[in-house]
Amino acid sequence: MKDQIILSSGSLFNYGLNRFFELAKKAGLDEIELCPDFRIDTQDPAYIKKLSRQYKVKVVALHYMMELFGVWGDYNERINKSINLAKKLKVQFLVVHSWEYTSKDYNSWIVKNQHNISKKAAPVKVVFENSTKSFDPEKPKKLLASSFTAEKMNNFDNVLMDTSHVATAQLDIVEFYKSLKDKIKYIHLSDNDFSPREDRPNSIEDSHLAPGYGKLPLKKFLKHLRSTKYQGIISIELMPSSIEAEKGEKVVLKNLICAKKFVEKHL
Question: What is the pTM of this model?
Answer without folding.
Answer: 0.96
